[in-house]
Amino acid sequence: MASGGAVMAKRGAGRLNKLVVFTPPKILSDGYGNEERGWDSAQALTVWAGIIYRSGREVVEEGVRTGQGFYKVKIRQSIAARKITTDWQLKLVNGAVVFDITEIDQISDRAYIWISAITRTGVST
Where does residue 15 fall: left (phi above 0), alpha (psi -120 to 50 degrees), or beta otherwise? Predict the structure, then answer.
């Protein structure tokens, strides 16, 4: 406890300090018989998360330079959060960062779900 009886804020990677939205996929029709993958915002789940940067790399394939960032994302266990799968989209609410979910660990920690995710940025060379 800090002086005056106030409780000090928890610091470090354990904090859930980023508001994120998980959105399941949805097949959309363009009205002409064509289908494309979209996102079902009506079924979206918005939660607080802890996001930890793990590593990054740059790859050049077919003349396109792609930067990849690897992250661990921690969210609280809940019935709704246990529905998240690797086809869902993960996005920061207060930014344009979109993550591809690569792995979900729902059983190692009773209190949290741990998610491995990648960000990708590309620039033509």
Answer: beta
Residues 6+ apart with CB under 8 A from 39: 23, 24, 25, 26, 89
* The model's pTM: 0.79
What are the residue boundaries of the structural domains of the chain, listed by start? 15-124
Q: What is the bridge-based pairing of β-strands 64-76 and 45-61?
A: antiparallel
Count of all residues that appear for the chain in the document? 125
Q: What is the third-level CATH fold of 15-124? A: Thrombin, subunit H (2.40.10)
Cα angle value 108/114/115 (rounded, 5°): 135
pLDDT tens, 10-49?
444 469 999 999 999 999 888 888 888 899 999 999 999 9
Give φ, ψ of 7 to 5 degrees.
-85, 130
